[in-house]
Structures are given as structure tokens and as C-alpha cells.
Design brief:
By secondary structure, this protein is mainly α. It is built from 12 helices and 8 strands. The longest helix has 18 residues. 41% of the residues are buried.
Length: 324
Amino acid sequence: MRSRLAYLQRVAAAYLGNAPSQLTFWHELPVINDRAFDEPCGEYYQCFFQKAEYDAHLDADGIPLLDYRGHVGLQYNPIAIAQWGLGNYNAFRRSGDDEHESRYRRAAEWLVASLEPNAHGVPVWQHHFDWEYRDVLKAGWYSALAQGQGISLLCRAYRSTGESTYLEAARAAFQSMTLDVRDGGVMLPDAADGAWLEETVVDPPTHILNGFLWALWGVHDFAVTTDDRTAHDLLQACRRTLMRHVGDFDCGYWSLYEQSGTRLKMLASPFYHRLHISQLHITARLFDLPEMERWARRWQAYDDSTLCAKRALMNKAVFKVLYY
């Protein structure tokens, strides 16, 4: 009960406070980067230009920290650092500006230096703070989302500079994508020929949609950069899982954030619903999957409906009170 109260207090502070919080970074309007499709593993698929300019909290080396308020406080988040780097990489590709180049390389170098073995000896980017989700994620938790977006930045840094340390780190980080969560990885088999990439490693799994899609793009980026056979095979397995299960995230008037396994399903917030739409548009183009484009248009119609949006917001609020 005390943990639940602390969680609700921190959420209230993040949403209602005036000072920059971790939400200041995360809740950038998702913008599709049309230039990303001009070449394999060129500019990143979402612009992240607002994230590229984030400077609310930086360490002495200019690396962003997020303020989670309360007892968690200022923390390095490898997902945020990767996204900050990807936004600056996009900005550098557009402008050639030295500062944007310096920022994306600082992010890539932080990722190289911060990759560390988990309890199974698998190289991952760990979050060194507890986080309340469905279960409390204890400090040291890791994520397919972090692995995927870190790989996406490192592949671009390697392709841009030719420096092998970036590719070596990407290759080390990719190991976790191929290993079952029981063996220290972030992958779960789906039937005989599919694979989930888990944003949060919990049992039973929740299959968070936005994290799976971002991680999937990281597998793609590693595959096209290295032509690694294992990466290509994993890419196909993840595509099969997406095709099989994308409809499971549709509740008839909104998209689900995850497969919560609860009686009342966990709907996406308005921000994450719009992120899903953006991600499906991108995934449709990246993998030539017109089915994903149809789902994106369906979910956009939900977003355009005031009735659907109000119903989803009410459902989301009740879920938060009852569950997590």
C-alpha cells in the first residue's frame, strides 16, 4: 500500500508540477521523418527534434538526466539518452552543425561505456533505479526498448564515422535480443515461428506495443548494417508476431498499451495512442506491410472521434485506480 501511495504521489508531481520532469522529455509529439526512408539506416524514423534540444538536466559531460521526482530523483535513462542521440543525429544530418554532431556522439559513447553484463552475463543497458510498473522493477532492470534504440543509434554512429567501437557495442547489445528472458535476454518466443521483444521483463509478460515496435526497428537497423543472418531471422520472426497479434491491441474504439492480463484492459493514453499510429505508419513503410497502414488509419479514426477519446480516457483512469 505504501509503495502504491508513493507511486501515485510521484505521478501527480510529474503531471501537476511546474518544473521539468521525466514527462517533459517523453511526451514530444511523435513526428514521422519522411527522410528516413531515403536510404537504409539513414536518418531515424521519428524526428525527435524537441528531444534533441533537451537541456533541463545535464551531467558534467552534457549527458541528459531525467527527473523522476520523489525518492527516485535525477537518473540516467538509456532509452532517453538513445532518443536524445537519435534526435541530434537527425539534426546533424540536416544541418551539419558541430554541436549536434558532438551531442549524438556523446550519447553513442555513453552507450558504449555503459553497456554492462546482467546477472546472466548478457550485455545490457541497465536502469539503476527501482521503477513501479505492474511489479516493482528493481534497479538493474533492462529493456528491449533500450536495447533496440541503443542499437539504432550505435549503427548510425558506425555508419557515419566508420569507428568500429560503435559496431562492436551494437553487436554485443544485440545478443540480448536473441535470448529468451529466462536466459537474461529480452525475447520471448511466440508460437513456433515468432518472437516478442519485451519492454519490461515481467512474468507473466505484458507485450507493451510501443516498446516492441521501437525494438523491432533496432533489429532492422542491425540487420541492414551487418547483414547478420541471426538478425534477419529475428526480424522475420518479429514481423510474423506483429502480423498475428496487432489486432489484439484493438479494443473496438481505442488501442491498448499492452496485454495486461487484467479483467479491465489497459488502454493507451492519448499520447501513446498517437504514438502507436505514428509507429504503425512507419512500420508499414519500413517493412512494406500495408496491413499496418490499415490499422494506423483505423486507430486514427478512433482518435478523431470525441466519443471514443472520452471513453478511452475514462477507461484509462479507472484502470490506473484499480491496477497500476
